[in-house]
Fold this protein.
Amino acid sequence: MQRKGLLASPTLVVALTGVAALVVCLLFMTVGVKGDWDFVLAFRGTKLAALVLVAFAVSVSTVLFQTVTGNRILTPAVMGFDSLYVLLQTVLVFFLGGLGVATLDQRWLFVLEVGVMVMLSGLLFRTLFSGGTRSLHLLLLVGILCGGLFRSLAGFIQRIIDPNEFVVLQDRLFANFNTIDVQLLGFSTVAVLVTAFVGLANLSRFDVLSLGRETAIDLGLDHRRMVTLVMALVAILVSVSTALVGPVTFFGLLVANLAYLVTPSFRHRHVLPVTVFLSIVLLAGGQMILERLFAFSTALSIVIEFFGGLTFILLLMRGKAR
């Protein structure tokens, strides 16, 4: 399963991007260090760990979602996961207030968000992807409608919420790579390791799944089971990234298509690590540049979403959607 790429060997691309990610991580930890190394390494190490977790979660969830849907301009946001996160945060702030939400144990709040998102994806699959109804397009359409419903409900509550509480809510809804909740790192690490282990055990099945439903079934793959498994993994990974930094819409689209561009292979054993390494380079490198050169004068999420949005428009104009 070879295809045209910037380099001939997919293994070489994986190795080069891996080295690039390692170099960027070393630079992130050491550039501009002044004072106590113990404090600096602990402070930067925590932030770097969170960035790596977010890079893994966003990139892997996007590639797997595009494998299931067979479309490279779609992201998990189309299923309404981000909108559900916004609705959950809005409802919590409305009923508990900004101070009440801040005093909640963020680890259990993270478990609640992951549970609700996984339950939503499971409910949609049980309703629309079982028995005689197995239309993935219908599932996506219902996901889009659910996303619109969640956004409308969140917008309605935000219009009647106290203005002071609305300011607190706005801070929780924008992606922020500067103030990451370290309490969530343990839960997020466990979630990412579990999904990584499950993903490694199914890499060859992901390749078969990318060939389409009929071909995958002809090759002996339990298509419904694999799609359900992938959507559960996507729900968990999206929950990890949104809980750590907030909703990120276009970053996954950007790194996934960069990986498709530079990797001369369709196999997930090549595409997935390249996507993760590119994500680490962009997130850790971008955060380092903004901190050292621009002194936090702008937010990394704004830059990422800008270039991700441009990528989305370019893909639409070039007719890359399959």
User: Anything to note?
Assistant: Residues 27 and 84 are 36 Å apart (CA to CA). The mean pLDDT is 78. Strands lie at 129-130, 133-134. The first helix runs from residue 10 to 30.
